[in-house]
Amino acid sequence: MNQVTLEALRVLGVGMGTVFSVLVIFYLIVKGLQIIFPPESQDEA
Amino acid sequence: MIDFSPLLKQPIMLFFGAAAQLGIFMAMLLAASTGVFSLKEAASIGIIGAADGPTSIYVANLFAPDLLGPISVAAYSYMALVPIIQPPVIRALTSKKERQIRMEADYDAKVSKKVLILFPIVVTLVAGIIAPISVGLVGALMFGNLIRESGVMDRLSKSAQNELANLTTLLLGITIGSTMVAEKFLAPTTLLILGIGLLAFVFDTAGGVLFAKFINLFLKKKINPMIGAAGISAFPMSARVVQKIALEEDPTNFILMQAIGANVAGQIGSIIAGGILLALVG
Fold first, then answer.
1. Cβ–Cβ < 8 Å for B64, B71
2. For residue A7, which residues of chain B lie inside 8 Å, CB to CB?
3. If phi over 0 gives left and psi between -120 and 50 gives alpha, with beta otherwise, what is residue B51?
């Protein structure tokens, strides 16, 4: 296995982990925003 | 200019937008293992799996300008071929019973206008803190959404969705086409890029479907695993493909709303993955 492949493997692990982590943060942000600003009768989409 | 409300009504779909980015990193690994490409070139080829033309162009332009032509051709071609690429992969990884799983959808779910406006702003800020290099990608998507949701820039929003988008597409096509000179484009590496790009879409689909099957192990109310395949950025093609297969299996099963939510998540996931790739490899 060459050096580039090893580095790509590292990027695969770190990259997928970071993508999931960031989207977990976005999930929590959405949930938080929905708690702070619940839908109102005249303020809905 | 995308509408995030289908995703904000069911934010759990964000996880499918993450899982379906597997193709980006697997394609990068494949490209790197050939020994033909450097890590930056391999990352540019991998980003074909984002199923997002502008993201592919942005990353390839920074990391491998010489490969911009073949990468753009592969990205846009396979995005158009999603209805041909995804169904066999979905069918191979799911049983008929799984494809018939029904999902409840709350069609009357509401999202506050304040949430719709704050979401793109907060996401851009968070993405900027985590990976500053990704702001160009994330910011462009979120700006388009913000001018749409703000409700006070209707003229600009319509221009961006129509004239500006058409002009940009034309100019992108012409400028990228002009880089595709025969000496660079008609080379064996172009075929290699096209092959790896196809596999990137296959891995994207497989990643989403297998992730859905995995979380089904822990859920009482099962998720139709086909939803995972809609976690790519090809919007709304991928969601339509999933709904079409669901209808073929059961003409009364409608999972389009959930699939659209996952598809929107895929758009966010792909630019985040692009930004992370820029941060890790750049």
1. yes
2. 32, 39
3. left
DSSP 8-class letter at B11: G
In this structure, of B1-5, B31-35, B218-222, B233-237, the range with the lowest mean pLDDT score is B1-5
Cβ distance A44 to B113 less than 8 Å, yes or no, reads yes
Reference A42, options B152, B110, B8, B108; nearest CA is: B110
A8-36 pLDDT per residue, tens: 999 999 999 999 999 999 999 999 999 99
| A44 strand-pairing partners | B112
Distance of CA B174 to the CA centre of its chain: 24
The residue range of the domain holding A6 is 1-38
The domain tally of chain A equals 1
B137 part of contact set with chain A, CB < 8 Å = no
Q: In chain A, which residue's Cα lies nearest the Cα of B21?
A: A16
Q: Cis bond leading into B6, ω under 30°?
A: no
Would you call A1 an interface residue with chain B, using a CB distance cutoff of 8 Å?
Answer: yes
Q: pLDDT by residue (tens digit) across B133-180?
A: 889 889 999 999 999 998 898 899 899 888 998 999 899 889 988 988
A9 falls within a domain: yes
What is the number of structural domains in chain B? 1
Q: Specify if A6 maps to a domain.
A: yes
Closest-CA distance, A39 to chain B, in angstroms, reads 4
